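FAQ

Q: What does a record look like?
A: Structure on top, sequence underneath. For example:
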């Protein structure tokens, strides 16, 4: 597999973001402090290894709340939920812990504010993604989801003079710019957040791919097929003219991809554990090729845990154990 490769470039930053670390910590801590069973609605983050590992530790993953028994504890995923889901949980007396990333919550709050002020809201994103489904639920009568500049150009809204836009947190920065430009042409008075809502982690991982894309002949992006930010990393590399593939793990690497490749880049989506990167490097490194980290920025973002977790611990006479990150245990 490795006969011709002379160098591996590791994009930095890559892998877990602060929202994913927080969500994983929340499930692990809930398993410690809440009476079992602990349910998680949907994948806590879009990565199979993370979900399987938490499942082995005791978390029960379900698609919808009707699979959760009354009075049980349920955790909402990092991607956020529509208000109707929260209302159903409250009505049923479920004990709720919300692992929605604070940067997703910020977009929800912007949607609520614009809806209250009477705006039609264009949500730039992918309509089948959990995050977009959740944000859409904040104002379903006012939000229009568009994914492309073409769709933006054709969009008709109730009052073209009063339009606002928001973005999913995990989009391609370049694609989003094109959509926003198309919206500005169509609705000259459109307003939006001071910066678009694409989160710091998405931006940094895309910037890191751009930095190495022209120095490698092939880029491997490790992440799940349903991970929006991982898919965008593949697109960013291909836009730069570099061959790129999304792989779950090292087993997905096809030997023919490596034909004639001397320098290979590796990155990982924001929900991908670093162990999967290490395994890929190890597999490709059979002939002692050089491995180089290329960092565009250091990240030090960390989000606080939800208060309900501390309250649940207190109820049981416990204090929350120190935050542990699953990335250290797998
Ligand atoms: S990718 Fe961004 S928005 Fe999504 S969980 Fe991570 S930090 Fe939050």
């Amino acid at each position: 597999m490795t006969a011709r490769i002379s160098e591996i470039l590791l994009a930095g930053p890559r892998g877990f973001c602060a929202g994913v670390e927080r969500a994983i910590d929340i499930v692990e801590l809930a398993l410690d402090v809440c009476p079992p069973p602990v349910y998680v609605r949907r994948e806590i983050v879009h990565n199979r290894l993370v979900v399987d590992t938490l499942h082995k530790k005791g978390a029960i993953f379900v698609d919808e709340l009707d699979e959760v028994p009354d009075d049980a504890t349920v955790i909402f995923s990092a991607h956020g939920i529509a208000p109707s889901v929260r209302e159903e949980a409250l009505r049923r007396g479920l004990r709720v812990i919300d692992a929605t990333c604070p940067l997703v919550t910020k977009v929800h709050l912007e949607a609520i504010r614009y809806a209250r002020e009477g705006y039609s809201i264009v949500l730039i994103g992918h309509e089948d993604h959990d995050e977009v489904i959740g944000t859409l639920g904040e104002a379903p009568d006012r939000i229009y989801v568009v994914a492309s500049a073409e769709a933006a150009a054709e969009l008709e809204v109730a009052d073209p003079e009063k339009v606002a836009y928001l973005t999913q947190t995990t989009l391609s920065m370049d694609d989003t710019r094109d959509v926003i430009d198309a919206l500005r042409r169509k609705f000259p008075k459109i307003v939006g957040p001071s910066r678009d809502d694409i989160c710091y982690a998405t931006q940094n991982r895309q910037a890191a791919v751009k930095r190495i894309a022209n120095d490698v002949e092939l880029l491997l992006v490790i992440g799940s097929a349903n991970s929006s930010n991982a898919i965008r990393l593949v697109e960013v590399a291909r836009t730069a003219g570099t061959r790129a593939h999304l792989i779950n793990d090292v087993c997905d690497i096809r030997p023919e991809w490596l034909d004639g490749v001397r320098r290979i880049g590796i990155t990982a989506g924001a929900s991908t554990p670093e162990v999967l990167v290490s395994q890929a490097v190890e597999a490709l490194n059979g002939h002692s090729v050089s491995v180089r980290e290329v960092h565009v920025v250091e990240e030090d973002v960390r989000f606080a845990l939800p208060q309900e977790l501390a309250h649940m611990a207190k109820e049981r006479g416990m204090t929350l154990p120190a935050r542990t990150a699953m990335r250290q245990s797998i």
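Q: Is there anything notable about this one?
A: The CA atoms of residues 138 and 175 lie 25 Å apart.
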